[in-house]
Input
Amino acid sequence: MKLENITTMGKREKRSYDDACGAAHGLELLGERWAILIVRELMYGPKRFGELRAGLPGISANTLTQRLEGLEASRIVQRRKLPPPASAQIYELTEWGYEAEPIIQHLGKWATRSPDHDPTLPLSSASMIMSLKTMIDRRRSERVVGRFGFRFGEETFVGRLAHSAMQIWRGEIETVDTTFITDPTTLAAAVYGGVPLAELEASGKLRIEGDRALAERFVTLFPLPAKFV
Amino acid sequence: MKLENITTMGKREKRSYDDACGAAHGLELLGERWAILIVRELMYGPKRFGELRAGLPGISANTLTQRLEGLEASRIVQRRKLPPPASAQIYELTEWGYEAEPIIQHLGKWATRSPDHDPTLPLSSASMIMSLKTMIDRRRSERVVGRFGFRFGEETFVGRLAHSAMQIWRGEIETVDTTFITDPTTLAAAVYGGVPLAELEASGKLRIEGDRALAERFVTLFPLPAKFV
DNA sequence: CGGCATCCGGGAAGATACTG
DNA sequence: CAGTATCTTCCCGGATGCCG
Output
């Protein structure tokens, strides 16, 4: 009995790494399963519970609820209630939460060198957008300038490329040079899989509106790093 | 019975995120508890099993063994046997494993803004060294040039600061301008906690050899980012 | 549909003891 | 010192049911 008490109290609170290293604390904040992917899904704007679930194939409602509670307690996520008549509850990153983007980008870029990475699996829109910002090649994109639209079903994004940097945000598609109308996985096949745009258009999985030459050029700007061994 | 089979086979292999996103694959590689901290411990050179344990307070031998096996299978860590008479087994990062450094650095830097981060906990030497590379302030260090030694018991590191960049590696301390003889946690108190060097010297926890003014200047180059709220 | 509570089974992590 | 064996605890995920 006393032994039980002692061992129970031995854990300061939950399981902690007891390490002043920032990385160790980072793992206490984001180290649980799914946590980083939830932050990824929120990186380009607030989402509802069901939208989060849709971008995280395999997560249970149960686990998603727990993670959101934890992330909210850590002040990485905040929940907000939209004003009536919508009055839906949404989840969004705090200012500090948005600053986690480079962590996820570095992790993603590093992992694509893994011998076991399978780029043909399905992909959420947030993943696709983040990968464009991450994987763009400075040298190849040096002299490319343009405004791009991306339409994935209901979701739309706008991107601006100039001086080797890609900015992308969620928003209405207006005054762009060229628009990709497709789904994230198909766009990945074009950009990372080297599948010709014409072939994807022929099979009805993708449509280009606007400057076609610019679209053709765009999909060549994102080389995958060499695999390790 | 049949239901059991179906649910058992439902898991393709282990628990996978089924997501082409590089970050998701990164979590399959480094997402298990302790994995990133093990990589951190190996970031400045190979270590033996016991040395790893010493830098990871709280890890069980059991778990460390499993993680090393997993990291080896993923080609992030390789194990090597030193030639006789040492013939000890050591663990070291692969070339690709060393490339994970920026992930850990960004994670650590981001997490120090957490309201819950406690920088007074103990710290391993690898954490301390990595934090110096991570947290150095470009502007403040612009015009500081020097070579630094760090002696933590048996372990020694050499650093070179020039043009706002800090390079540090494990090695013998020779031809440096100033040397810190202390332990990682005390150095953190000086660099991040603002504790005066004189006070730490008075209590016998730290000793400076060489250019004292340079040492005093050095400890002002690593401001912590502002907390979030 | 969105979100939370509860129960259950499996597996990963921790404590301890033990072996070469 | 470098792990292995065993046992326990706790986290994760699936299923179900409730409630707005």
